[in-house]
Each structure stands twice: as structure tokens, then as C-alpha cells.
Amino acid sequence: MRSRGKRILVVDDELSIQRILRRNLLMSGYEVLVADNGEEALNAVRQHEPDLILLDLCLPGSIDGLEVCEQVRRQSQVPIIVLSARTEEKQKVRALDLGADDYLTKPFSNAELLARVRACLRRAASGGGGRQQEEAQVLRSSDGYLVMDVERRYVRAGDREVRLTPTEFELLRQLMLHAGKVLTHRTLLRAVWGPEYGEEADYLRVYVRQLRRKVEQEPSRPRYILTEPGVGYVFQADGRRDQQPTAASSVSNVAPAEE
């Protein structure tokens, strides 16, 4: 752990945005690196090992922001915050699919930027955002199909080991820890992403889809990570589809949002 400020890589080809981001981050005590394009960004990640990346999706040259995100995720779990325009919704969702941790829609305030940066760095430092807990260190579905060793950060689905990003790991941990209880969108967002969050339900949709792809036998017909329409998600420990709760029958099991 470096004693100096965390190192942040800003990847954007607009000089005005580079200057604003660099100035605001420096004033907040961060060390700042800047890359103008995808190739420079990938070189900077290899050479300087930043603690966080602010990544614009629209970059000049042959390597765009999506490819940067994809290549970085092959070698590192460094947090990535995507900077996107309002017209780039599909690219933004694709970036989250590829492993980005968060996004900011331009234009954004300095306060919002710094809050997201702090939240991402905090999650990375804690290995995914979870509280230090006295809870069980090994979580499993009742049929033994899904097993999570929290301390070893190991997940097994059936007879195969599953590699999860820190955010995916913490989301699955929260669901398994409260098996059988419907966790609201707000509760999950605050537990996994931090207290700055609560309304970004699209994060959950993307990450739940990713989790299902990785741990469910049939992602399109999930047995364990179930949707409670309009409310949130629930982990079904026995993997029986015919026991999916309904909002009417499981009100008493809904975990309250943390204030």
C-alpha cells in the first residue's frame, strides 16, 4: 500500500476535461496520470498500476473505451469508472458487462465525481465492499451446488470454480448471506456499492445478469438468484423454481433499506 495519495488514471481525449479532472483530483490529494487514447491507457495500466481508472468510452484510434475495459479486466481488478454521454446508453451497459464498476453521465459535478471515486476505492480496499463481519465464512446453497468461501474468496458452482470480480463476489455474498429474504434494490446497492447509492437499479440488473451467467446452470431460467419484480432479488437456497416468493407472500421477509 502506497503511503501517498491513490493513483488515478484519467483516459479522455478532450483536453478541457483532462484539465478539469486532473485539477480536481489533485486538489483532493490524488496522484493523477493522463492518457489520450486506448493504447496509451493500456500502457499506463501496465507500467504504473493505477488504483482507479476514469475511462471515457469514445476514444480516438483503433482501441476504444470498451476494448480498454475488456483488456484491463483480463489482467487486473482495478476499479473502472466509465465516463459516458447520455447518448451512449448501450455502450455504457456493455462496459458494465465487460467489468466496469461504475459510470458517470456527462456532465457531472465535481462532488459527484469525488463521491464515486471514494466509493470505488473503498470497495476495492475491502475486497468488494462488504463489511468486516462475524457472519459465516463459508456460505452454500442447501443442495450443495453453490459454495462460497468468503475468507479464501473462492466460489464453486457444481464441480467448477467460478471467477468473480470483487463487485460480483460481494453481491453474491449479500444474497447468499440473506438466503430466503427479498433484498430490495436500495438495500443491495448500499450494501455492495456504498451509502452514496440507492437509485441505480440498472447496476443491479447488469450484475445480476452477469452472476446468473457465471453461476446458474440455465441463466435464462435461474434457480438460485431470483427476481422479485418491482422489489429486488432473493437467493433461493434450495434451487427450486416452484418456490419463488411473491411480493404478496414474502412481505415479512423483505430486508429493510439501511438509512
TrEMBL record:
It holds the Pfam family Response_reg. Keywords: DNA-binding, Phosphoprotein, Transcription, Transcription regulation, Two-component regulatory system. Gene3D superfamilies: 3.40.50.2300, 6.10.250.690, Winged helix-like DNA-binding domain superfamily/Winged helix DNA-binding domain (1.10.10.10). The modification 4-aspartylphosphate is found at D56. InterPro entries: CheY-like_superfamily, OmpR/PhoB-type_DNA-bd, Sig_transdc_resp-reg_C-effctor, Sig_transdc_resp-reg_receiver, WalR-like, WH-like_DNA-bd_sf. Residues 7-121 form the Response regulatory domain. PANTHER family: KDP OPERON TRANSCRIPTIONAL REGULATORY PROTEIN KDPE, REGULATOR OF RPOS. This is DNA-binding response regulator.
